Amino acid sequence: MEDQTMSGGEINMHEEMRRAFALLSGKWKLEILWLLNQRLHRFGELRKAIPGITQHMLTAQLRELEADGLVSRTVFAEVPPRVEYAITPKARGLGPTMAALTAWWNEHGRSIPPKRSPPRGRQARGG
């Protein structure tokens, strides 16, 4: 890859890419965007679709994505309240990136061993 770090008032692509990576960093953000790229989801649907995510973490990640303009949140005045999350046109611009990642995974995914999830909760000590 070509080093595009520049000085003298020109665009510093290294810094710009760091900003782009920061928008998408977080354990769950890409998975949330992937799901919302398929269709809109309610909060509970997202929580069920992402094993291991806590309610607190899902809320935090959705808030960050919304603040960055990648996810929209619609609240319906119903009892009980209904909230739907959708991907924004800005985030849809990531479509080619998602397609490239899918193609890469289809080619190389089988060569990557699955990670074992650590056990959740407290573990009994042997003794």
From TrEMBL:
InterPro entries reported in the protein's UniProt record: ArsR-like_HTH, HTH_HxlR, WH-like_DNA-bd_sf, WH_DNA-bd_sf
Highest taxon listed in the record's lineage: Bacteria
Start and end residues of each HTH hxlR-type domain: 15-113
Record's keyword terms, sorted: DNA-binding, Transcription, Transcription regulation
PROSITE patterns given in the database record: HTH_HXLR
CDD domains: HTH_ARSR (cd00090)
Record has Transcription regulation as a keyword: yes
Keyword Kinase carried by entry: no
A matching Pfam family: HxlR
Protein name stated in the entry: Helix-turn-helix transcriptional regulator
